[in-house]
Every structure is written in structure tokens, then in C-alpha cells.
Amino acid sequence: MDFLDIKVLLEELVQCCQSPDISVSEWAERWYGTYVANRDITEKSATMYRQKLKHYILPKIGDVPMREVTEIQLQEILNSSNSSKSTAQKVKIVMQAMFRRAKSCKLILNDPSENIVLPKAPEGTHRSITDLERKEILRLAEEHYAGLYVLTLLQTGIRPGEAIALRWGDINFKERTITISRAVESGTKVKIKDPKTSAGVRVLPISDYLYERLWHRKKNADELIFCQPLTGRMHSSSSANDYWNNFKRALDIQMGAKVYRNKIVQSVVAEDLVAYCLRHTYCTDLQRAGVPINVAKYLMGHSDISVTSKIYTSMTPDVIDRAKESMDDFYSRL
User: What's the superkingdom here (predicted)?
Assistant: First the structure.
């Protein structure tokens, strides 16, 4: 290191020391408002930044002064998040963007996020619901205001964003089918988008069980099937999530959760029960019903059959028994 390098380093050190000693929370708010909110990015991306700050980063180091944050603290946040690979990647992106900008603004001398690494994490796959969960969900769906929404997710496998974009005209009651051709983009604002790929546009069969319940709620073709209860407006993906969470809370209480002053103090519903589990369950149901994987790919709206195959590889006893019966029948005819 020559004299000029030392001089530059000393100047940066002096400038850094003269900068206000703000906390991570204070910097996160200023950084988000200045460098994220004003960028030309989608509402979905902006929401991702906010959520990762709120749920993963700030609860751990929000009160820590920016100058005192260490690499090991940031690495521990990634290691202890118990998140999927996708979530860990996003948390890392947010941390590195925030601290890299803090360094360029001379708030910190060194960037503690520069060398953090992704921990070993599972791929972000959802699970199928259990038999007990299915039984309780179907029972609650008969009386809860979000019941038809939950039942539609479970028996069509559509994505939440696709469900909240549906209008009654998308249902062909004569043919007993439902057409999926659009979705609401993730975020707090309502923005309709086309499917990511042509595979997202599809016509789905409606089960007799679901058909009966849709028929009794039928309205004008241009009206939304699922809307916000108080305003009647189209759901955003954020309000649809609240819609599901309200149903899940009622499910928790129905299944025996302990409640004190209208607050659940001891939950019995699994934490990993999310709305997307219903979509995963539908795909598993297709397999158990003997639906060919290429047909399941179409019904699920997957552009790549390898995505469908990740679910179809989940073997259940009845699938294996059916395979045995089919092979026995085949051999008996040889």
C-alpha cells in the first residue's frame, strides 16, 4: 500500500467517522425510500424488499448502529432463517444492496455483507394437506366467508392470484369448466397481468362438489367471484393473503386452539399450512386419481413437465396399490 492509498483510506475513515451514527432500522427506511421505492421496479419486487426487511433483517439487528454490524451477524441471520433456498437468496440480495449502498454513502467503512454466503437450504416446495386438515377445511368452508375461495383453490389447483382475478363469466356452467386467462400481480396494489407463459392459459374441469357450491352463488358474468368483503373491490394479492389468514385462524380455533381475549395463545394448526399447499394438494390428488402426468402439467399451468414431476414423484400407498392392480390386470391378459 503506497502513500496515496493510505491517504485515501484515511480520508474515507475521517468521512465515515463524521457521518451520523444511525441504526440499521433508520438506514433501512432511508435507503428503501431513496433507492428502492423510486426505482422503476414492479410492486412485487418492492414488496419483496419490504417483507425481507420486516421479517428477517430488522427483527435481528434493527437497533444495532450501522457501524457496529458485523459479517457474522448477517451470516447468522441467513443461517437461522429456516427458509427455503429462494427466500435465503432474496434476504441476501436485500442485505447486500443495503450495506453496499451504505458504504458508498460513507456511512460505514467496510461492507459486512460482502462475503456472506448462502446456507444449505431446501428448495422451496410446498406440501400436501393431511387427511385431517382436508376434513376440517371442508367443514369450515361450508360456513366461513372465505370458504368458497379456499374450496376453489383446493379443487382446481389454481394460484391465489388467478383465483382473485376470476369473474363469473369465466365459468361455463353448461360444460362445467372454468377458464384461467389472467392473474393479479403480487403486491399491495391491484394490477392484472397475463400469465407468465402460454401454459398459464387453460380450461379446467369443475368437480361436482365445487360446481354445486358455485352454482348457488352465481352472479352476473362481469362480477368478481371473490372480492373484498367490505368494499366489494377486487382483492390485491396482499388482501387475498389476509383472506386466507382469517380462514386459517378460524380453522385453528375449530381444531382446538386455545384462545384468550380473542387472541390465539396456543395454536394447533401447522405453521407451514399456507394457501399454496392447496395447489400442491390438487396436483397430488391428480396423481392419486390416476391422471397422466402430461394432463396434470396442463391442468396445473406448468410450462415445464419437470415442475409437475417433482410433485408426482411423491408416492402414496394408494398410488402404489393402483399400479400393482394395473400390472396384475395387464399380466393376466398376456
Answer: Bacteria
Q: Residue 177: in which H helix or E strand, if any? A: strand 177-180
* CATH 3.40.1190.10 is the classification of domain 10-104: no
CA within 13 Å, CB half, 66: 29
* pTM reported for the whole predicted model: 0.67
pLDDT, tens digit, 9 for 90 and up, residues 1-10: 555 555 444 4
Domain 131-324 coded CATH 1.10.443.10: yes
Helix axes 237-254, 147-156, angle to 10 degrees: 100
Inter-CA distances, 249 with 239, 262, 300, Å: 15, 11, 27
pLDDT tens digits, residue range 59-79? 999 999 999 999 999 999 988
- Considering the chain, what is the average pLDDT of its residues? 86
- Give CATH 1.10.443.10 domain extents, the chain: 131-324
Contact 24, 53 (CB under 8 A): no
